[in-house]
Design brief:
SP0561-like, mainly alpha, single chain, globular
Length: 73
Amino acid sequence: MKATKDMLIVDLLQLDEKIASILMGYGMHCIGCMLASNETIEQASRAHGLDADGLINVINQHLEQVASEKEAD
């Protein structure tokens, strides 16, 4: 599954738990907050002054790598 910037953060985190580390690396330390989990990645990016498209690209690269590793096993 590909991530999109209109996805809720809580839904992104269900795709792969390591996405939390990616978000935290971009300064989104409040991802566990009840309000933040109901934001889209686009809303959260805007609040943190980040480029949502760039962040989604990083997340999708991670998801592609995870999928490739699963196929190799």
